[in-house]
Design a protein that fits this description.
Layout: E1 2-6, H1 11-22, E2 26-31, E3 47-51, H2 57-63, E4 69-72, H3 79-84, H4 86-106, E5 111-117, H5 140-159, E6 163-168, E7 170-172, H6 185-194, E8 199-202, E9 208-213, H7 214-226, E10 231-235, E11 240-242, H8 243-254, E12 260-263, H9 278-284, H10 292-303
Parallel strand pairs: 1-2, 1-4, 2-3, 4-5, 5-6, 6-10, 7-9, 8-12
Antiparallel strand pairs: 9-11
Helix pairs in contact: 1-7, 4-5, 6-8, 6-10, 8-10
Bound molecules: nicotinamide-adenine-dinucleotide (NAD).
């Protein structure tokens, strides 16, 4: 297997590169380093790193030479940034996506796996969310990811390209940049705790989310690349916790008592989110997922 990982220097990408290299695959990373870091990746002969932009189709085509499998993760990853600049976001997440998808078709790769998102679902009509739940995105980012799902399905029909969209829920773990204004809530809380600052909770903290450890996502990505499964698939633990439960678990791991500062509910915040991982388990088997407290412990250790 020679895998092209777009966005491979980022959070999920670098963990996926590590897992693939450990499995014996060759890996090429295409990343523009807008948020990813070279230091996230090991220096090893099985890995080639190319600095390039997915919006540049010639850079994408060059990176696809001799590739058998694609893991497309590069994206404009911020919901607020997509609301502030929908055109810029679509150039990355629709045009950039299509550059990689069409390049993969022309390069005749065996498999195209890409990052979709739980954001495609919008406000849930029923819980838990499964892949047949209505798609009703609340942001340009969510819409772009659902358009990715439609393009991937069409390419499967039209050209026979084997495509699978992974609808990641809330991924957390080492290397998620807490300095980014769009960092996941866990890395923001962990960084605030480390700095002795209060944790900012929007609303009462009763909102629920499904948090999945990045190491488990990387292993899942590997299985997804090796499998013939197509369509879309939730990537989640199936166990949601409230933000207050999350803070409690984090505080226990860090052996401290953080201050919580409640702020008005953020506009558009979804109250409850829960995912059905049934299709994921059927397709890829049990992953022996990292328990939340263990994942939090690894995150805190990585910050020391
Ligand atoms: N982290 C999550 O909880 C989560 C949830 C749902 C979906 N996703 C999706 O998973 C994928 C990976 O997310 P992440 O959390 O690792 O984010 P990340 O920001 O850490 O990684 C994205 C990587 O893509 C690179 N990149 C951005 N624009 C690029 C471009 N135009 N050309 C080439 N490289 C570019 C960045 O430098 C970075 O290395 C994204 O598609 C994201 O939308 C993530």
């Amino acid at each position: 297997m020679h895998v092209l990982i777009t966005g491979g220097a980022g959070f999920i990408g670098s963990h996926s590169a590590e897992a693939l290299l450990a499995s014996g695959a060759r890996v090429t990373v295409l990343d523009d380093f807008s948020s990813g870091k070279r230091a996230n990746l090991p220096a090893t002969p099985g890995l080639t790193v190319i600095c390039g932009d997915i919006r540049d189709s010639s850079a994408v085509d060059k990176a696809l030479a001799s590739i058998s499998h694609v893991l497309h993760l590069a994206a404009q990853v911020s919901v607020p940034a997509s609301v502030a600049d929908p055109l810029g976001s679509s150039r990355q997440n629709i045009q950039g996506f299509l550059n990689v998808l069409d390049g993969a078709r022309r390069a005749k790769v065996a498999r195209f796996v890409y990052a979709s998102s739980a954001a495609v679902y919008g406000v849930p009509v029923h819980l838990p969310l499964d892949e047949a739940s209505p798609v009703a995105p609340l942001s340009p980012y969510g819409l772009e990811k659902s358009i990715n799902d439609q393009y991937a399905a069409l390419y499967r029909e039209l050209y026979g390209l084997s495509t699978l969209g992974l609808r990641y829920f809330n991924v957390y773990g080492p290397r998620q940049d807490p300095a980014s204004p769009y960092a996941g809530v866990i890395s923001r809380f962990a960084a605030a705790m480390a700095n002795g600052e209060p944790l900012r909770v929007f609303g009462d903290g009763g909102q629920t989310r499904d948090f999945i450890f990045v190491g488990d996502v990387a292993r899942l990505n590997l299985r997804a690349l090796a499998s013939p499964a197509t369509g879309v698939c939730n990537v989640a633990t199936g166990h949601s916790v409230t933000l207050l439960e999350l803070i409690d678990a984090l505080a226990k791991c860090a052996a401290c008592t953080p201050q919580i500062r409640h702020e008005p509910t953020a506009c558009g915040d979804i109250r409850h989110s829960a995912a059905s991982p049934r299709r994921m388990l059927e397709l890829f088997g049990h992953l022996n997922m990292t328990p939340l407290t263990e994942g939090l412990r690894q995150l805190l250790a990585s910050m020391e």
